[in-house]
Amino acid sequence: MATEKITVPDLGDASEVEVIELLVAVGDKVEENDSLLVLESDKAAMEIPAPMAGVVKSIEVNLGDQVSSGSPMLTLEVGDSASPAPAEDAPAEEPATETREAPKQEVSEAPPETAAGNQSASDNASVITISVPDLGTEDEVEIIEVHVAAGDTIDVDDPLITLESDKAAMEVPSTSAGTVEEVLIAVGGKVKTGADILKLKTSSVAVGQPAAEQKQDANAQAAAAEKPAPTPAAKVTPPAEPVAAAAPSAPTGGKVYAGPAVRKLARELGVDLAQVKGSGARSRIVKEDVHEYVKSRINAPATGGLQVSAVPDIDFSQFGEIEQVPRSKLQKVTAANMQRNWSSVPHVAQFNEADVTDLEDFRAQLKAEADKRGTKLTPLPFLLKAVAKALAEYPQFNVSLHSSGEYVIQKKYYHIGMAVATPAGLVVPVIRDVDKKSVWDLSTEIIELSNKARDRKLSLEEMQGACFTISSLGALGGTGFIPIINAPEVAILGVSKTEIKPVFIDGEFQPRKILPFTLCYDHKAVNGLDGGMFADYLARLLSDIRQLIL
Ligand code: CAO
């Protein structure tokens, strides 16, 4: 097997672009042209396709990385037929590693040259023709959305149409404000650079504003001929800003932000993307969001005519001083996921407590050893071990539901996520094979992963594959809380603060260390009796940790 290093294609004018979506994971098999990842500049979002079929061996980039032309992205293991013949002096059996640039994208980024035949601004009312800007390709691209109709009044930068190639969706904004006289294209049509889009009656033309090309009509040209001046370069606005939804032909005015593959899927499923909440970076809609939306619509209960109204945006400045504070990407993605999980998963919260007096004594005895090892032993590694054992005992918790509702996916491994609060927001690194690791190993891994989480150094792999999540707020106090299940997992454990409480034992009250916890489970996957038994078993394991080694 040979390997191919896949690098970022020539990005043209853009020096650096951000990795905003990873569409594959290590071990995935990809076909030629399957999308690998999505890059985004301030002008365009681009899906990068595989130049060949193969298996993803390693991924060299993380979400949020800035990359430039030629940067390594990932390594593909390719079949012998796909790999070039080894050099003559190389041993034939030695695997060859080639570097291959991913196919070049067809997204142009604000080319600086002036479009020929453009006219200057005119103070007089005139009719101009707005045309497709330089697309950076000779190929035709499809018009997938038309956002305006004859008679519409539009402003500079309002989206006119959305174009879609195999690799990118691009929005063409207006150069000028005015009234649309005539739309010259239609959804489904194909256009090239320079094709006429519409005629616009305008009294002013924005100078210095990058936009779609504009030509003055013959009668208007005469009036403007006195003062010819270069018209600014064309601009293709990619879906970095939300673009209008994929309505068949009527302008929707709604805004969405999605790549070509997602738009195609939405068209196939008849989904109006304006209705879909994006969970990706910058609220970008990803395929899972479309599937989730379809599922939620299918499962939506009859409302009996009652509509849930949106929470209104209120001008709070009328009540006192305010400040608008932007939310981080992570906070927005978390919010979207929380909303989805809260509204699509019927949660049951099972409250319980464990007498951890013996566990805490044992932990205290291990303090010197922990210091010697240069680590800190908190209750969390014991909780991880206990949860892994409870998952083995009650495998109905170690599942995910298939979206069809026809079956569950039973997991035979025990990877557990732990919620980590970071200044940028909440992240959930995953500790793999908890059942096979010692309490010391787990303790080291907890520290390593939570440090990485706070430094924003976690790889995608380190955040994937959990069967179950523990959210431990114990250190902060509180007697109990209801955590939200991290779907498609079907259960989560919320851990609160250990307190000394009087417990009636052998005819007297004794001071015992009591750890309160909440097991939340998805009632679609787990029934109430099992929930009670799982929580009870967990409490017994934590109360008598000798059980953990049995
Ligand atoms: N009761 C009492 N004390 C507890 C406790 C509990 N249940 N759990 C931990 N502690 C103690 C620890 O022993 C430690 O004490 P010392 O400093 O004296 O040793 C102290 O609290 C701090 O622990 P920690 O937070 O550093 O370590 P941890 O292993 O308990 O947790 C981590 C690690 C990463 C999970 C945690 O730091 C964190 O980020 N928790 C927040 C999780 C969160 O935000 N959840 C909400 C998600 S929304 O659903």
Task: Characterize the structure shown.
- With 550 residues, the chain is an alpha+beta fold.
- It folds into four domains: 1-104, OB fold (Dihydrolipoamide Acetyltransferase, E2P) (Beta Barrel), CATH 2.40.50; 105-206, Beta Barrel (OB fold (Dihydrolipoamide Acetyltransferase, E2P)); 261-298, Dihydrolipoamide Transferase (Irregular); 343-549, Chloramphenicol acetyltransferase-like domain (Chloramphenicol Acetyltransferase).
- The chain has nine helices and 31 strands.
- It has helices spanning 218-224, 260-269, 287-299, 329-344, 357-365, 367-373, 380-393, 439-454, 528-543, and strands spanning 2-7, 17-22, 29-30, 35-40, 45-49, 54-59, 66-67, 72-78, 97-101, 126-131, 141-146, 153-154, 159-164, 169-173, 178-183, 190-191, 196-202, 213-216, 243-244, 255-256, 347-355, 399-401, 408-410, 416-418, 420-422, 425-427, 430-431, 468-472, 491-495, 499-505, 508-522.
- Strands 21, 24, 27, 28, 29, 30 and 31 form a seven-stranded mixed sheet that branches.
- A hairpin with a 2-residue loop joins strand 30 and strand 31 (508-522).
- The chain starts with a strand and ends in a 7-residue tail after the last helix.
- The model is unreliable at 81-96, 104-123, 204-211 and 216-254 (pLDDT under 50).
